[in-house]
């Protein structure tokens, strides 16, 4: 089985054979228990649940954003306990658009596991295809998975502050245009964006069907955003380092790899009142 490293469609996943595991990453920021309850009611056959707060993040600190990166060794042990081995294909899905599944995609790659893909269109696409769901929970035998962390895959607030005005670099914010501009902020205590950042809402990576745009169309759009900045000069951010992974997934699928994640993102940036804030813009 060739590895899937960005996206996989429902029809392909339904016929996938070999060493693979499926993870349900459904989550609702306004109701942290919703995804787990939905999983208990119905999920893809063989899927196991990973919770954004408990499994895909570490504990919040006074200096961190809302979803700090998990400890890489702890994440590797957790995935290994759920049956992931070094050659296992991981498939992540969420309720629809990949906003939360992309977090697992990025984290798996960060700890050195490249065979990870997001189900394009999520469980919604699976349902639309008329494919089966179940309430039964699979418990595969545990394996040993060792983290081989990719240093330099993410940046901290100090690095972002240094890079945001440096030629050859671009900070791209995945939040919606209203939040980026400082309007209608309902999640974080301070509205606005990092001065110099550009806005590319993660939903702009999707078509009207909730699935990712074709790779050539994604590349066209991201080439416009990047301009003369190389893909490796891009720093992806959002509110807390989750939907930023969606932009990095879109870039990877478009053949524009190398961008870094600002893991703390806006919710960490505003922890320090000395950091500048801008409003308006695009």
Report the β-strand fraction as a percent range: 5-15%
- Rough outline: globular
Count of beta strands: 10
Largest sheet properties: 5 strands, parallel
What's the CATH first level of the largest domain?
Alpha Beta
Looking at the overall shape, the CATH architecture of the largest domain is 3-Layer(aba) Sandwich
Radius of gyration: 18 Å
Whole-number mean pLDDT: 97
CATH topology of the largest domain: Oxidized Rhodanese, domain 1
* Total domain units: 2
CATH superfamily grouping of the largest domain: Rhodanese-like domain
Structure characterization notes:
- α9 (244-253) links the parallel β9 and β10 (260-262).
- This protein has helices at 10-14, 34-41, 72-81, 101-110, 122-128, 157-163, 177-181, 215-226, 244-253, 265-269; strands at residues 7-8, 20-24, 48-49, 89-93, 116-119, 154-155, 170-173, 198-199, 234-237, 260-262.
- The N and C termini lie far apart (43 Å).
- 28% of the residues lie in helices and 12% in strands.
- The protein folds into two domains: 7-128, Rhodanese-like domain (Oxidized Rhodanese, domain 1); 154-269, Oxidized Rhodanese, domain 1 (3-Layer(aba) Sandwich), CATH 3.40.250.10.
- A five-stranded parallel beta sheet has the order 1-5-4-2-3, with helices on both faces.
- The protein has 282 residues and is of the alpha/beta class.
């Amino acid at each position: 089985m060739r590895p899937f490293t960005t996206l996989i469609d429902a029809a392909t996943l339904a016929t996938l054979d070999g060493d693979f595991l499926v993870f349900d990453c459904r989550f609702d920021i306004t109701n942290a228990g919703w995804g787990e309850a939905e999983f208990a009611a119905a999920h893809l056959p063989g899927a196991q649940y990973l919770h954004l707060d408990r499994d895909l993040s570490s504990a919040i600190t006074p200096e961190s954003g809302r979803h700090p990166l998990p400890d890489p060794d702890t994440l590797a042990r957790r995935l290994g306990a759920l049956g992931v081995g070094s050659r296992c294909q991981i498939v992540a899905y969420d309720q629809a658009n990949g906003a939360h599944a992309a977090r697992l995609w990025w984290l798996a790659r960060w700890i050195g596991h490249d065979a990870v893909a997001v189900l394009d269109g999520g469980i919604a696409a699976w349902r639309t295809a008329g494919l089966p769901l179940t309430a039964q929970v699979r418990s595969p035998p545990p394996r040993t998975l060792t983290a081989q962390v990719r240093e330099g895959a993410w940046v901290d607030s100090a690095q972002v502050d240094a890079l945001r005005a440096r030629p050859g670099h671009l900070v791209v914010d995945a939040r919606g245009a209203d939040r980026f501009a400082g309007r209608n902020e309902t999640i974080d205590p301070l509205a606005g964006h990092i001065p110099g950042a550009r806005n590319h809402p993660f939903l702009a990576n999707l078509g009207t069907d909730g699935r990712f745009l074709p790779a050539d169309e994604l590349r066209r759009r991201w080439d416009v955003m990047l301009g003369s900045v190389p893909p490796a000069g891009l720093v992806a951010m959002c509110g807390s380092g989750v939907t930023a992974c969606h932009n990095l997934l879109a870039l990877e699928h478009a053949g524009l790899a190398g961008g870094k994640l600002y893991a703390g993102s806006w919710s960490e940036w505003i922890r320090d009142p000395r950091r500048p804030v801008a409003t308006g813009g695009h």
